[in-house]
Amino acid sequence: MTASRTTATLHSILDPLGVHAEHIDVVWQTMLWVCGVMFLIVFTFGVLAVMRGRAKHQGQDVTPQHRKFSIALVVWTTLVVLGLFGLTMTSFFTDRALVRAAAEPDVLIKVTGYQWWWDVQYLHSDPSQRFKTANEIHVPVDAQVLLQLNSQDVIHSFWIPNLNGKRDLIPGRPTEFTLQPRQIGIYRGECAEFCGLQHAHMAFDFVVEAKEDFERWRQQQLASAPTPPDAKTQLGLSVFMDSACSMCHAISGTPAFAQLGPDLTHVASRRMIASGTLANTPENMRRWIINPHDPKPGTLMPAVSLPDEQLDALVAYLGTLK
Fold first, then answer.
1. CA torsion 245→248→249→252, rounded to 10°?
2. Phi, psi (5° rounding) for residue 251?
3. pLDDT per residue of the chain (322 residues) written in tens, 0 to 9
């Protein structure tokens, strides 16, 4: 494992920090150098052809250059064949390496794309060890991660540039995706297929952490939501259950079990809300509840109109869901 990071990484395919991304980077580097050399050769021949044309136009004898150009043409053709063969073999061996990297998974996760957020379910052979979250995926460093991908509405595309390529999510056609991150950090993931008005605001955090930190987080996620600790948060729970919130969201340990929107059982533990659109702060949570179409026009979440006292209580209650 390389040196750990505690902040978000550079969001780029040129910063490969996973086994699969490293294999893909080999293809990129090979194509860059091969095509770069080919470009320089073509450019050089272009310059020589212009110079030869000018010499011929000025009446100079260019016959002695014919043999040189014939030899150069043979060399150029050979280089093209070798370059294409090299790119083909690089692509082939990279593809084989990606298949070998998809070994028996240490973590199995089901990810479903919606307009415009990500439903994340951690699967396990023991049903009591399963749980759901949204727009945030945690995995241990160096672990083999298998993602089962699907879409509930339109075509989405799952992409974490630093860790692997893109994989389309097509409704009714489940697919799989493997990752093996080598470095601790917070990676930005996103939808890479235009899927509607809020396509640009369909991001997620992919958090790679030490094994003990991941296990601590997993145990936290398995727990039901805590009981409201005071009168204000108790009022907040009542507001949640009596308003439109409970018609779309689930909170484990309460009568709320709707599945139309993200699971909110541990929403306060997430770094972002609204699928990577807003930092998870009380102010942004309040803003999101009363007018979600302000930061995210076109979102399918309706505005919830509440008196200030009830809104404050609701935000305070959601802040306890860690």
1. 110
2. -135, 115
3. 344 444 445 677 777 777 777 777 777 788 888 888 888 888 887 777 777 666 565 555 555 666 666 777 777 778 778 878 877 877 777 666 666 655 578 899 999 999 999 999 999 989 889 999 999 999 999 898 999 999 999 999 999 998 888 899 999 999 988 888 989 999 999 999 999 999 999 999 999 999 999 999 999 999 999 999 999 999 999 999 999 899 999 999 999 989 899 999 999 999 999 999 999 999 999 999 999 999 999 999 999 889 999 999 999 999 999 9
CATH code assigned at 164: 2.60.40.420
User: Is residue 148 one of the residues assigned to a domain?
Assistant: yes
Query: Whole-model pTM?
Result: 0.78
- Which string of DSSP letters, residue by residue, matches 121-154? EE--SSGGG-EEEESEEEEETT--EEEEEEESSS
> Are residues 169 and 238 part of one domain?
no
Domain assignment of residue 69, yes or no: yes
